[in-house]
Amino acid sequence: MRSLCTLNCRCFETGLGVDQVGEMERATRNETPRAEAPPLVLTKLFAPSTDERTLPRDRLVERLHAGSGLRLTLIAAPAGFGKTTLLAAWRESEVRRPVAWLSVDEGDADPVVLWAHVIEALRQVATGPCRALSPQLARSVSIIEIVLPSLINALAEEHDIALVFDDYHRLAAGPARDSVAWFVEHAPRNIQIVISTRREPLLRLPAMRAHGELAEVRADDLRFTEDEAATWFRDRLHLDLAPEDVDTLVRRIEGWPAGLYLASLSLPDASDVHDFVIRFGASSRHVAEFLVAEVLDSYEPAVQAFMLRSSILGDMCASMCDAVTGRDGSGALLAPLARSNLFLVPLDGTGTWYRFHHLFAQFLRIELERREPGITPSLHRRAFRWCLDNDRHGDAIDHALEAGAFDDAAEILASEWIVHVNACRFATLLGWVDRFPRSRWDDDVRLRLVEAWALSLSGHRDEAARAMAVSEALSAAPHEPLLDGFSSVESSLTMLRAVFPWGDTRSLHTAAARALSLEQEGSPWRPVALWAMGFGHYYQGDFQEAERWFIECLAVAPGSEQWLVAGSSLAYRSMIAGEQGRSADRRRLAEQGAQFVRDRGLESVVGEVPLALAASSLADGRAEEALGFAERATDVLRGWGQPIDLADALLQEVAVLRALGDYERASDSLAEARGVVESCPAPGILADRLAELTPTPTRYAGTGNGDLTERELIVLRLLRGTLSEREIGQELFLTFNTIHSHTRAIYKKLGVSSRTQAIEEARSRGLI
């Protein structure tokens, strides 16, 4: 199955063994353990709460309530304007609908990571179909084509829900951000989407604004007024400021909420409040300097050191902080700091995980470098060791890269890359590779191989080819390091060529044979090579030989948890049975394949299974059912970017659409299939299948010689049914006169004078 998926995805999760086929059924009947999926960071779904110091801002909360039923509610303002605090207050006041929350971070630039967390956030608050969704659904290359439509369909049947994307500005440009834009455009109106961001999001805001589909809260709305500031100082902080001092402070910091909070931290100790207000800076730069000088220095030296050194962390817990700061007792500091300092944010309800306010963390890191120059890399190395010991391998790679420990980062990446491949987190892999120094990147064959695999899986053919060329050049070095699971660099490159042939069935067969010779029995990659051999023979039309390889793949795939190639092999065996006229086997194998991928959460990944189901359903006369399977197969296989797979799915879609009489859509699918097949250097049997489905003008001898055009052939097929000429026109979106003209032309070219005679003559000539 094309997708590296075909690969070695020992995939996301495993399940109970399924009766395979023939002699192999007994070999895979035992239970198999479910592979543990990379965990969700559940603290990202924890919505912050307000406390007694939070000033109620009813006017803004009501504006958020008013966003119900609109396409988008947007809160956009710079750092420190109280966006998250406002959202927390609104969430606590929201009684009409539950609120799902996601605190976006840089890791969400991988769309699989983003939507796995969104699905889990929604699942936690839903009462209807969304509760049955699994974050595993996000593990698909076809986020927009597969994942989001499924999510939106489930949301459409839910009661009202609000979904918050907090800190949306941390989402880098790319597929993840594009997928959010698509989601905003297509989400049902019972879902209130709320985005909080420092920067203007790249969404269709002018159009939404013009159509009354947008509720907005901006920086000017969030600024404290003199009255709000006075109320906050007096009623919430119990500070006695003269009205004129409050007014001066608000004017000098232009109502910036964080600035007011920063001022409040030192006001109780000011001997001259009026002088303090005058000295408090009017620019954000001055406030930043004040934050470091006044706020940080208000703590004991030991607490300062703790805050400075732990600022290199993102999410933090006590034992992690102990390891990084080099001192025990972090647990006794975190909870009091969170209570006394709004810049330390709790991430769960148990007091285990925290993070610094992003802006404050930046200040702390700057001050850390000033006070302890050059210490940051060693702190990251400590964090790396803790993460490695606690099985947080993704965080370990991040800290190793920050520490400049590129050897360590490369070692972990080379051994853990397949975990992220199995979860379809290709963007995450590419992001890590890009963070290595260019010199190291160019010299480490493992990094270039990881890059080649991730690019191939993402459908980036040219970039993948360049990475493979560099890898091949590096493979000549003595004592070459190996990518986890492969016997050699040559084996990894050969497997890439076998799994991603880019439309060349001849080169695929050669690469698959070589891969088999390199990955002997017992290798975790041997099932993939066996699958590739079956794939190559199948598209060369050698079905009997193809089935032999697929059967062998099914026999050994469970041993190395190669569930993707096993599911794909079942699907191809079903289609081979159909080619050989074994209808019962075709149906049985297709259903086994469907159950197999369903048990392992691979429905959105293995596109060959719905392809086999479409062929089986159509052969059994269930064309409507077949159409759903064919469309799903096309969507999934399109995501992998492999021409052979996509062309096969499109041609199956053409056959189904014609059976349903939808000739317009069939023509569109056929045109796309033709373009894909013609792009293939060696498409194998797909060229013949394309020719069989391509209508050509046909010359007839006898009375009224002529050519039947493609449009006339479509009308001729519809004449077989009970539709009148007027109804045929409605089906084809053509006028009655146009259909009547086509019908007269058909009669003339076939040499007949009635509808019945036309059908009989067409059948005798093999036209229908």
Strand-residue proportion: under 5%
Class based on secondary structure composition and strand pairing: mainly alpha
Oligomer: single chain
Tell me the span between the first and last alpha carbons.
34 Å
* Global mean pLDDT: 85
Major sheet summary line: 5 strands, parallel
Provide the spatial order of strands within the biggest beta sheet.
Answer: 2-3-4-1-5
| CATH first level of the domain at 42-221 | Alpha Beta
DSSP, total strands: 9
Shape: globular
Q: CATH homologous superfamily of the domain at 42-221?
A: P-loop containing nucleotide triphosphate hydrolases
Low-confidence stretches: 1-37, 697-704
Radius of gyration: 32 Å
Q: Within the CATH hierarchy, at the fold level, what is the topology of the domain at 42-221?
A: Rossmann fold
Q: Helix amount, in percent?
A: 55-70%
- Count of helices? 38
- CATH architectural group of the domain at 42-221: 3-Layer(aba) Sandwich
Commentary on this structure:
This protein has 768 residues and is mainly α. Among the domains are: 42-221, P-loop containing nucleotide triphosphate hydrolases (Rossmann fold, 3-Layer(aba) Sandwich), CATH 3.40.50; 226-298, no CATH class; 527-693, Tetratricopeptide repeat domain (Serine Threonine Protein Phosphatase 5, Tetratricopeptide repeat), CATH 1.25.40.10; 698-764, Arc Repressor Mutant, subunit A (Orthogonal Bundle), CATH 1.10.10.10. 58% of the residues lie in helices and 5% in strands. It contains 38 helices and nine strands. The strands form three sheets. A five-stranded parallel sheet has the order 2-3-4-1-5, with helices on both faces. It has a two-stranded antiparallel ribbon with strand order 6-7. Helix 19 packs antiparallel against helix 20 and helix 30 (608-619) runs parallel beside helix 32 (643-659). Mean pLDDT is 85; it is low at 1-37 and 697-704.
